[in-house]
Design brief:
Shape: flat
Distance between the termini: 38 Å
Helix content: 25-40%
InterPro entries: DUF397
Structural class: alpha+beta
Oligomer: single chain
Strand order of the largest sheet: 1-2-3-4
Radius of gyration: 13 Å
Largest sheet: 4 strands, antiparallel
Number of helices: 2
Order of helices and strands: HEEEEH
Protein name: DUF397 domain-containing protein
Number of strands: 4
Organism: Saccharopolyspora mangrovi
Number of domains: 1
């Protein structure tokens, strides 16, 4: 089900990745957020609900501001 939702999604790599070999790409749709490894795009993709993805990002921001 999630793979169908991500089949036509636009995948983006962080501009901060530069030429780093350890990168992920993210695709955001109305329903899910997909995350995949740039070195193995045909392998498994993680899919998160938009709510859970926003929780994850909030946690990262909190850790960044409060080490």
């Amino acid at each position: 089900m999630n793979s169908v939702r991500l089949a036509d999604a636009t995948w983006r790599k962080s501009s901060r990745s530069a030429n780093n070999a350890y990168c992920v790409e993210v695709a955001v749709t109305d329903e899910v957020v997909g995350v995949r490894d740039t070195k193995d795009r045909e392998s498994s993709t993680l899919a998160f609900s938009r709510v859970r993805w926003n929780d994850f990002l909030s946690g990262l921001r909190h850790q960044h501001h409060h080490p």
